[in-house]
Structure to design on (229 residues):
């Protein structure tokens, strides 16, 4: 069975803290993605990666960075958390070589982050 | 810029009814379209993926159709059950090199027992 796991279901952080969100997939997928989901705005792509050490900006990368040192792990980093980064964060992965990828995106359970 | 719209935003039906959820997109140059289900506070579960060359896909009581020229997709749910209650999202992937999905804001479905 396909499995994407995220390190935390709920997180509470203070403004200015550095925050790490971890995502691990066990399907040997090349592509991994980070989204945030907000009411009325839907899911928006923050960053994605199509290979180890490769990354590309999505639609809303400001205030975020990512790291992909191993194929199965994709980390989202909030360098200095702000209240407007309170959101639901979803990680996904999909198969396919290069920057494409043919297949279905599989999602993790999400991390609900509250920044105070 | 691709925009994806889902109408209605919310829908309530009695158990057993057949129903249709709508998804429209502004740019017909898509690579594929995917329908997802999301339960409250959870991640997304993929239901059906339709490649741009396909017209429809079926899985159990679900049938998704795609009309690229008109920029529309529908998700048909037959004989709805209370367990179908969830938010349904459609997402389009553009042609080209990137694997980005553009999501609609979803339809919240409630099936009343």
């Amino acid at each position: 069975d396909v499995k994407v796991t995220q390190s935390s279901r709920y997180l509470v952080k203070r403004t200015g803290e550095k925050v790490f969100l971890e995502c691990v997939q066990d399907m040997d997928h090349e592509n991994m993605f980070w989204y945030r989901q907000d009411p009325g705005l839907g899911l928006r792509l923050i960053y994605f990666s199509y290979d180890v050490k490769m990354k590309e900006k999505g639609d809303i990368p400001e205030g975020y960075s990512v790291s992909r040192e191993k194929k199965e792990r994709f980390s989202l980093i909030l360098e200095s958390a702000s209240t407007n980064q309170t959101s639901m964060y979803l990680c996904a992965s999909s198969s396919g070589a290069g920057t494409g990828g043919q297949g279905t995106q599989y999602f993790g359970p999400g991390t609900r982050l509250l920044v105070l | 810029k691709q925009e994806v719209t889902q109408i209605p935003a919310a829908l309530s039906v009695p158990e057993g009814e057949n129903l249709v959820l709508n998804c429209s997109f502004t740019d017909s140059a898509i690579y594929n379209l995917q329908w997802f289900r999301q339960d409250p506070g959870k991640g997304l579960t993929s239901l059906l993926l339709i490649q741009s060359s396909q017209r429809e896909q079926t899985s159990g009581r679900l049938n998704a159709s795609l009309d690229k020229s008109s920029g529309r997709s529908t998700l048909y749910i037959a004989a709805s059950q209370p367990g179908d209650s969830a938010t349904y999202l459609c997402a389009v992937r553009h042609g080209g090199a990137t694997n980005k999905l553009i999501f609609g804001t979803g339809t919240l479905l409630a099936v009343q027992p």
Summary: The mean pLDDT of chain A is 91.
